[in-house]
């Protein structure tokens, strides 16, 4: 909801002729509809409408301080327990649109109360920078969120009174580091990041998708690098990871066609109803695309990336691929120096903006019958040195596998045999791993760690909360399909579309 004057601040035109002079009239600018039994199923009405802040109608015009929470129930809990004006973010922990920032300019103090899970805490620094670090105070609580704090009969006013401003970006206090380390000890699965639902075995090695990292993917030409990244990007995006694609080798139209086919799980040709259904679901995903193609100045790409992070709260940026982006820029050894300089800029950007950047780098020319290694990555050693993760998609004599050759998070390396399913245009694990198996493997590893360190287990089941939400893929009976690269399990033909890519906002 918003007053007419608020709409004017946000640049939204409203018809005020019917009630001219009523300065306190509120307008319903948009509706959020959410399922009662499954909070992951929600939609915003109308599509592409203007933004607003839930609870804004309770904020006095003379108020100078405000509590900003992640969800609507949290805002109501804060207001009920403290009487303080409280509003919630428009669409969860990854959504603070620039359009609503003018509404918050008049407040001298803003208390930012995000959920204590990894998604909420990842957004704290970014939102504090958007709101202004000098006036933003971060609320910390042992409860998951403000609503849980109220249900647990905790003192919400005390938590707000203890809120602290974000320290200098380049200075960390031990107290802050102590909290972060304790969080990793008690909730290791939360620190692992967002899990993959389409390649569960990847979770056993990488442990999850994490912000602030750089991943380098390499592999021979035509082996399926773009197919793999397209699949994984939809996977994570459907779980709320706002994504920016930079495709410098293939046009965005072809890339999106591939994505829609993967999301539908079958070809879309001659099936207009399925295309419309898939496109409607895809439209709800926080997925964005760079318009650059072919040789492009690195600084122009960085400028677009910075805007996307600010305007759309992007968390994952994919650049496919470095050679096409820098083609024709430099000759001889100069092109290696230019590539190193670009990699250095991307590394700094990922760390400074706390986003994950995935880079596709072609390998050097190698013999067709030998596996690629870290030294096979084109250019100098800087690409693999700067990267937190290095993945190599191998394909020899029709056999395909994904090698994890570098993993800075915990050092686990290994290989995942893969097979291509032409019907869905997806890569599948040749030896199927179910999501519960992958969760159990990660949980078991962390449980051993807790026992060795004599650390009490967390009270909540983080596996079900982080990995299996916001949606659990439907379990279907596998069928055997013969392909040129061997037998593997794929889902039954009657599997519901989008079962592995169910978006946060659905019909």
Describe the structure.
There is one protein chain. This protein folds into 2 domains: 2-171, 3-Layer(aba) Sandwich (Dna Topoisomerase Vi A Subunit, Chain: A, domain 2); 190-490, P-loop containing nucleotide triphosphate hydrolases (Rossmann fold), CATH 3.40.50.300. Helix content is 35%, strand content 18%. Helix 9 (225-237) crosses helix 10. The protein contains 17 helices and 20 strands. It has helices spanning 4-9, 72-82, 118-131, 146-151, 156-161, 174-186, 188-192, 200-206, 225-237, 252-264, 272-283, 298-312, 322-325, 333-353, 382-386, 435-453, 462-467, and strands spanning 2-3, 26-27, 31-34, 42-45, 65-69, 86-88, 109-113, 136-138, 164-165, 214-218, 243-247, 287-289, 316-320, 356-360, 389-396, 399-407, 414-421, 426-429, 479-483, 486-490. The strands form 5 sheets. The protein has a 9-stranded mixed sheet. It has a 5-stranded mixed sheet with strand order 6-5-7-8-9, sandwiched between helices. The chain is globular and about 70 Å long. It has 507 residues and is α/β, with parallel strands linked by helices. The longest helix is centred in the C-terminal third of the chain and has 21 residues, at 333-353.
How do the strands and helices of this protein lay out in sequence?
Layout: E1 2-3, H1 4-9, E2 26-27, E3 31-34, E4 42-45, E5 65-69, H2 72-82, E6 86-88, E7 109-113, H3 118-131, E8 136-138, H4 146-151, H5 156-161, E9 164-165, H6 174-186, H7 188-192, H8 200-206, E10 214-218, H9 225-237, E11 243-247, H10 252-264, H11 272-283, E12 287-289, H12 298-312, E13 316-320, H13 322-325, H14 333-353, E14 356-360, H15 382-386, E15 389-396, E16 399-407, E17 414-421, E18 426-429, H16 435-453, H17 462-467, E19 479-483, E20 486-490
Parallel strand pairs: 5-6, 5-7, 7-8, 10-14, 10-15, 11-12, 11-13, 13-14
Antiparallel strand pairs: 1-2, 3-4, 8-9, 15-16, 16-17, 17-18, 19-20
Helix pairs in contact: 8-16, 9-10, 10-11, 12-14
Protein name: SF4 helicase domain-containing protein
Pfam family, one: Toprim_2
Organism: Saprolegnia parasitica (strain CBS 223.65)
